[in-house]
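Milestone M4 deliverable, item 7.
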Amino acid sequence: MNITVTSDVFKLAQVFTISRGSRTEAKVLTVKMEKEGVTGWGECVPYARYNETLDSVTAEIEGLPADFTRAELQSLLPAGAARNAVDCALWDLEAKQAGKRVWELAGLEAPGPEITAYTLSLDTAEKMQAQAAENAFRPLLKIKLGTPDDMPRLEAVRAGAPDAKIIIDANEGWSAEVYAELAPHLVRLGVELVEQPLPAGEDDALIGMERPVPVCADESCHDRTSLPKLKGKYDVVNIKLDKTGGLTEALKLRAQALAEGYQVMVGCMVGSSLAMAPATLVAQGAAVTDLDGPLLLAEDREEPLTFDAEGVHPPVAALWG
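Output delivered:
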C-alpha cells in the first residue's frame, strides 16, 4: 500500500474570524492511498488548538507501516487529524475495491441531504448584522462569539435575520459568570444551542448550572473516551472527524452518545468538500449539522458537494465514498 501526503491551500471567500484569531485560507492535508491499482482519498485539517501542525500530522502519517488494515489503524494512531485522513482514505479505498458505497459497507441507510448551519464570522456588531441580513434566507445560522461584550453582536444578528434559527459557538471564550448572565438573553433571542461556552479545562462549572438553552461539547468531546467527563455538563456532543480520528470512531461515538442520552451535532473544521464528505454520513438525523466548510471557500475540489435548499447532499462517488 502506497501512502502520499500533500499540503493543499484553499482561499476563503472572506476573512474568517473566531475568538482565537483570523484566517484568509484553509490549509489542509490530502492523503492518497493506493493499493493494487485502486486509490482512496481523505482530507484532514491540523488544528493548533490540539497541538497539531501540517508538519507534525504529515510526520504521523508518513511514520505508518507499509501495510495495515483500518481496524489496525485505530491503535496505530491516536484520535486526531492524522488518523482521520488515513481512516477516510481507507474507507474510500475499501468502497472502490468492493464496488459499493461507503454507507453500504458501514451498514447504514442510504444518506440524504441535511440542512446545515452557515457560520457568521466574529466581527463588529454592525458587520455581523450585515452578514446576517445577507444570509437571512438560510434556515440555520451559526454565530462565532466568545468575548465579554457579545450581547450587541447577538442582538444585531437577530435584527439582521429575524426568522433564521440561531446557534452560538463561543469557542471556549466565556467564563461561567458571562454565560450565566447571557443565558436569559439567549432564550429571549431564540438561540437554540450554545457550543462550548467555557474552556474545556474549566467546564466543571457547568455542573448544576441551569441550562435554559442546550449546551454542546466541542473542545471537551473528542471520541468515546470523552463521554464520561461530560455527564451533568452538556446536552449535546459535537462530532468532528478531525477530533474522532476518522469515520470509524465517529460512527461509534454517535451510537454511544445517543445511547447515553445526548443529542448529536456534526461539525467540521474549515476544509474542502473532501473533508465534509464522510461527515455527511454521520450527520444523518443529527440534531444539528454544521458542515458549511465549502461554503466559506472561494475554491473547492473538482467534484464538490452540492448545497441547495435541501441542505448539504452526500458526495458523488467521484469525490469520495
